[in-house]
Amino acid sequence: MRTMLVRLVNQINVGASGHRIGLAQYGQDTKVEFLLNQHMTKDEVMANIRRFRTRRVQANEQRNLGGALTYAATNFFKAAAGSREDLGFRQFLVVVAGANSSDSIYQPARLVKSEGVTVMAVGLGSATTNQMKAVATASYVYQSTNIVAALKTAFETEDEAVNVVGDCVTAKFADVVFIVDKSGSIGGSNFQLIRNFLHKMVESLDVGKNRVQIGIIMYNENPTSHVYLNTFDDKEEILQFIKFLPYHGGGTKTGQALKFARQNVFVKERGSRKSQGVQQVAVVITDGESQDEVDKEAADLRRDGVTIYAIGIQNASKTQLVQIASHPSTMYVYNVDSFAKLKTLQKSLEKIVCHNIFRDAITVNTRRRCVQSDEADIFFLMDDSGSILAEEFYDIKKFIIEFLQTFHIGRHHVRVGLVKYADSPTLVFDLTQYTDAKSLEKAVENIRHLGGGTETGAALSSMTPNFDRAMTTRGHKVQEYLIVITDGESTDEVKLPAEKLRAQGIVIYAIGVKRANKKELKEISGSPEKTFFVNNFDALKTIKDDIITDICSADACKDIPGDLLFLIDSSGIIRQEDYQKMKDFIKSMIGKSQVGQDMVHVGVIQFSTTRTLEFPLDSFFDRSKMWKAIDNMQQLGGGTNTGQALTDISQYFDPGMGGRSGMRQNLIVVTDGESQDQVKEPAKLLRNKGVIIYAIGVEGANATQLLEISGSHDRMFTERNFDGLKDLDSQLALDVCKT
């Protein structure tokens, strides 16, 4: 070991402005020999390496590599310890292990890598390749100390050019504009890190004429467009331009920059292809609180069809980031505590942006419809109070009109009525007044905004006679829905009138905007799953499909039997709270399935390095027993061998193991990491067997592997974190029913 270190130091440029070296060793505990800032000359480093002696590990002593990795993440790569990450220097950790770790290495390894550190792992003795793969970054795994040349090459080679891979290969068409803060609080060295971030982001996209177009706006007190969407056709030209983006300092007026983007950049004359259906995307990067209002300008930009990502650095206002970004904020708002963290953020943002571009393109081309033969009566209860601005009232009407376009409107199919309210409710039109979609749309367009207070309780009470008349005019009882839209807290009590409506069998969806009281919304709907909140009225369109899917899924899944297996990642890299969210997702999916002996059969298998069958397809035929079994599941820990799990699960679709021949057979795979074995062939064999596979990737999942598993972009989903699973269950339940 010491010989390897001596050879390495001899061959690289060690010094205060060159490579800095730190050294530690671990057993049960971690012992620091010297930090990055302790020895600044090659001679000093060499002398201390020659004095270094590896401690003999006792026979039964633990080797806690997990603890050592955690210690490294929290202590080694800090400015106080000599790290120059904030100046753009790359960070490397070389791990040499003589045996497998006694403690878990999976979450600590993710922690180190999430700090932007490249980890190189050397496995010696009995240290397994699987553990070293879990510890290391990408392909930096070695099984010999004869790696000086490889280390030297890695340390001295600039970051390689990024190829267009994964989701970005399929994100073919988009207009992407970066709106970049260049105010005085950033500073020249930090602005260089922003240039690096932009360079990597653009490099990862499929930029070119008739593909992804790039625009760049810089702003302080005043915005300036340095690159319009039609300025460059050649990717290399724009990458060169980014290297020399000017930095001037000044104030921070993000609202002005958003307005400038809408009026001067996302326009046809400057290359916008919005009229051709090409997605419009803005990425706002700021490090401080804006000196002007951002809420209205951001809403206007989103109303123009632009999806906005908001990236905050250091002192950025979280409130303003949420106001700027598209809904939901969990997907579109990013916050990092230093400019150096932009490098790590780039990888996750790239994945999410490209995936969303592709998914949104599919959504535009195959817009979800709920053309059902079953009957339903739907009432909208629409807040008309004075706190709602004219353009916001227009957003509500637009939401309702787009909602109507999804259903089969007719006297004997879906009927729609609308009540608006402020100080008192007003019936705008009853269920029987309009019997076709076009007439309904015209009626909604003609609704006038009058203003007043917010008496939601009285409005809810007024709905009982409306629904009573519904049964009389139709002649029989059908499924009834009430969709409440409000932007404020009610001045009267809502709980009792809402409970009375639900007691009549009316399903209530409560949608709150801006100042709405979330507790009150839940009292109205009676269920978290039927409660929605958005920060701005223009975001109503983003929850439309969630409500439609929830309404439609019950009819779409009725009387359709099938076999449904869940294969869930139970590796050690998953945090305990995230493991619980995954279990909640499975339970929710089961709750939306028509479980029964002659209907849908469900089974669950966990996997990590090993596999555990929790229950096969023919074990339970009622939801409560399944839910109890899922509650009792324990996380396995270990690595992520998804390929082997796919091979093993095949047998459980066979008749002898609980499967049913001739039935629809679906597999839902949920994973948050990159598989340590190959997944393509095992997944292909399953699909050839007739199994439809849905692949859901969270956080660190590999997009290429997800596609190899599912075999189709339509059945591949990526979520930024486990919280995103709760927004996926209705959509996935409907998709599974329709396959």
How is this structure best described in words?
This protein is α/β, with parallel strands linked by helices and 739 residues long. 38% of the residues lie in helices and 20% in strands. The protein is built from 27 helices and 23 strands. The strands form 5 sheets. Strands 8-7-6-9-10-11 form a 6-stranded mixed β-sheet, sandwiched between helices. A 6-stranded mixed β-sheet has the order 14-13-12-15-16-17, with helices on both faces. It has a 6-stranded mixed β-sheet with strand order 20-19-18-21-22-23, with helices on both faces. Strand 12, helix 15 and strand 13 (414-421) form a beta-alpha-beta unit. Helix 3 runs parallel beside helix 4 (106-114). The chain is globular and about 95 Å long. The relative contact order is 0.06. The model has no long low-confidence stretch (mean pLDDT 90).
End-to-end Cα distance, whole Å, is 57 Å
Percentage of β-strand residues: 15-25%
Biggest sheet strand order reads 8-7-6-9-10-11
Per the principal axes of the C-alpha atoms, what is the gross shape? globular
Average pLDDT metric? 90
User: What are the segments in which pLDDT stays under 50 over at least 5 consecutive residues?
Assistant: none
**Helical coverage, percent range:** 25-40%
How many E-type strands?
A: 23
The Cα radius of gyration reads: 29 Å
Largest sheet: 6 strands, mixed
Q: Strand pairing plus helix content: what structural class?
A: alpha/beta
H/I helix tally: 27
